[in-house]
Automatic annotation (TrEMBL):
<dbReference type="InterPro" id="IPR018744">
    <property type="entry name" value="DUF2293"/>
</dbReference>
<feature type="domain" description="DUF2293">
    <location>
        <begin position="138"/>
        <end position="224"/>
    </location>
</feature>
<protein>
    <submittedName>
        <fullName>DUF2293 domain-containing protein</fullName>
    </submittedName>
</protein>
<dbReference type="Pfam" id="PF10056">
    <property type="entry name" value="DUF2293"/>
</dbReference>
Amino acid sequence: MAHPATPLPRNGLLVFQRLKRRHCAECRTGPLQMLVLEDGAPRCLDCADLGHLVFLPRGDTALTRRAREESALSAVVVRFNRRKSRYERQGVLVEEAGLARAEERCLADAEARRRRRMRDARRRAQEDVRFVEAFAAEIRRLFPGCPADRAREIAMHASVRGSGRVGRSAAGRALSEVAVTSAIMASVRHVETPYDQLLMSGVPRHEARRRITAAVETTLRGWRTGVSEVG
């Protein structure tokens, strides 16, 4: 029954799953869903003293590893893949108590990962708040006439995590003047000029930008030379 390419485990027992319809050579029960080969003859799990084990399908590597660690007795379950002409692992047989202990360990790990994700999320949120404040402060330094609430609005929009906007670029993170000015120009273009309406009316983007260039420059010039407002 065993194929020459049978993947015998380095340590432990091997159980075959869903092979040809066979009966146990000892107790004659069958057909067997899982069997063990002893001297070439099939044995059911009970006759092979493995009937008390429970089947754990493959898929969760951590749970499988821990279940085997927690079980004094375990076996690897394989099935022959005719298309690939080889045996493939389907899971393991482990002690029920060992599986329960392994599940508890994995649940503890899952809770630890959940708490770590929460801590990381809080840390990122705090970092984002500090960065928005720093970005807004740099806007106000370069453009003192820009209202404080407007500067914060621009900073928040430009620095949304995962947005790909200028505030998340390397230059933006470094608060370079080019990046900060680019963020301000983009905001002014959409808020202080009819740029969006031009686009919606079918005006090509480059032509729309050309038409509102003077308005953008006027706003930036006023913010750059104006008196800082209390916001």
